[in-house]
Design goal:
This protein is α/β, with parallel strands linked by helices and 304 residues long. The chain has two domains: 24-90, Chemotaxis Receptor Methyltransferase Cher, domain 1; 102-294, 3-Layer(aba) Sandwich (Rossmann fold). It has ten helices and ten strands. Helix 2 (47-61) runs antiparallel to helix 4 (81-90) and helix 5 packs across helix 6 (138-151). The two termini are 40 Å apart. The model is unreliable at 2-8 and 298-304 (pLDDT under 50). The protein binds S-adenosylmethionine. The site of S-adenosylmethionine has 26 residues, from loops.
Length: 304
């Protein structure tokens, strides 16, 4: 196995010799930019975080002041490349394999039996799943491994997982499917040996997701703020966990409506542990801890 290096995290230590502090006015300007291009809402307590992450961009570009950096973004970035890097720099990508494990238990114990029943009844042996805000891939890979286990392999099934994120840096890591071995600590040993390869020699300390798992997943960049989304329904399952918390309520509502419009009649939505649909959308029934099922017929907006 040949493994490239795993790229570094954005959570590095404090910056030495960076630009002077971000003034409240500059903070307003940059947080407005971040909000306009990602929907992410940065409260005043995020000023030190924004300073640290932007200062790294300034240093990479050899720019000394935030005013010049803003000028660079508005006047010297016609293709939006620096804007993309800025947005990548401010996203929070925390994730884990088997994070919020009860979701995968539900998938294996409730959803797969229902899928099998549908296959027996209607002869439909396909499933479409969206991992929205997939970060560096741990979530869609956990979904894939869970399904492979519960279905006894993908043979005879047409299963596709589309995994999307706004941040192109984490998407590249996701696509590579290579992790430091401490990242796979939550993966039970039998699954680790069935679905991952361990590096040796120069790649010792790394693990790689096996091809059969990767084959189920398609990674794409998708920004919730850029509508219409290039994803059509009906989808059987949508995971959107720990992403909605970064948005204000009108944005959360718009995103949830987009999910609802794409969910199949019995489709299931998984949210993160501190997220809820309460007061935001109707038409979903609570079926478990942060698990919702679509009730009734698909909406007119659900395009095939
Ligand atoms: C905290 S991570 C959650 C990862 C995974 N779903 C989990 O729960 O472990 C949130 C992800 O949402 C993504 N995100 C933030 N704003 C987004 C947007 N406007 N469109 C799409 N993804 C976005 C971030 O890049 C980040 O990777």
């Amino acid at each position: 196995m040949t493994l490239p290096e795993v790229s570094g995290s954005k959570a590095r230590g404090p910056l030495a010799g960076g630009p002077r502090d971000l003034t409240p006015r500059e903070f307003e300007v940059f947080r407005g930019l971040v909000h306009a291009h990602s929907g992410i809402t940065l409260g005043p307590e995020k000023r030190p975080m924004l300073y640290a992450r932007l200062a790294r961009r300034l240093r990479a570009l050899g720019i000394e002041t935030f005013t010049d950096y803003h000028r660079h973004l508005t006047e010297r970035d016609p293709r939006g490349e620096e804007l993309r890097r800025l947005v990548n720099a401010v996203t929070t990508n925390k994730t884990d394999f088997f994070r919020e494990a009860h979701h995968f238990q539900y998938l294996a114990e409730q959803w797969v039996p229902a899928l099998r029943a549908r296959a027996a009844r209607a002869g439909v042996r396909s499933a479409r799943i969206w991992s929205a805000g997939c970060s560096s891939g741990e979530e869609p890979y956990t979904i894939a491994v869970t399904l492979l286990e519960a279905l006894g392999g993908a043979a005879g099934w047409d299963v596709k997982i589309i995994a999307t994120d706004l941040d192109t840096d984490v998407l590249a890591q996701a696509q590579a499917g290579i992790y430091q071995d401490d990242r796979v600590a939550p993966v039970p040993d039998p699954l680790l040996s069935r679905y991952f390869l361990r590096g040796r020699g120069q790649t010792a300390g790394l693990v790689k997701v096996r091809d059969e798992v990767q084959a189920l997943i398609m990674f794409r960049r998708l920004n919730f703020m850029e509508e219409p989304w290039p994803i059509r329904g009906p989808l059987d399952v949508i995971f959107c966990r720990n992403a909605l918390i970064y948005f204000d309520r009108p944005t959360q509502r718009r995103i949830l409506e987009g999910f609802l419009a794409r969910l199949a009649p019995d489709g299931v939505l998984f949210l993160g542990h501190s997220e809820s649909i309460h007061g935001l959308v109707e038409g979903l029934t609570h079926v478990g801890n942060t698990i919702y099922r679509r009730a009734g017929a698909p909406s007119a907006a659900a395009a095939r």
